[in-house]
Every structure is written in C-alpha cells, then in structure tokens.
Amino acid sequence: MALDGKITRFEAVQALVGDPLHEVNGVIQYLGGQSAPAESDITVKQSELQAVYDAKGYARNRQFEYPPIGDQLDDLFHSGSFSSDMSAKLQAVKDKYPKP
Predict the structure, then answer these.
(1) For 46-82, how does the pLDDT look when each residue is reduced to its tens digit (9 = 90+)?
(2) 13 and 32 in one domain?
(3) Structure pTM?
C-alpha cells in the first residue's frame, strides 16, 4: 500500500496471480512461470481493492481511538459482565500472578 492509502498496481497484480512476484524499480517480475494478467484486469482489480480499503476507513480510524483490548476486557471482568465460568478462569490467572 502506498503511503497515501492508494492500492498499488503491484498489489492488484499480486491479488490476481498470487506469489511469487517481485518488483524492482517499478517493474513487476513474474517468477515461477507466471504470466502477466491483462492490463484491463489489473485496473479492475486495483479499483476493487481500493473500494474495499476505502470502505473500511472507519475501522482504521476507530482502531486508534479505542482503549487497548486488555483494558476493555479488564473492565468487563470487573463489572461482572463475563460468564461465571470465564470469570473463574480469569480470576485463577489473576490469583496465580498477583499484582505486586
């Protein structure tokens, strides 16, 4: 992925033909007997991948705003939101390794 969030031509080709591929100075090299896909197929795949990436922008933005997952789980444990079986398992670990 380019730094600007744009799907690269290489990523589109990789999605079409898989590995192994190699890119040197902007030139895609096909290894293991692979052949290059049609330019129109590359363009379509690049657009498809970009649409998927763009549609998930909210998830990337949320990721840095949410508290760490460990804090979220600890809060659930302390509020009694886990099943009694899960709470017992978590408490056993806490008891085995208590805070100093």
Answers:
(1) 999 999 999 999 998 999 899 999 999 999 999 999 8
(2) yes
(3) 0.65
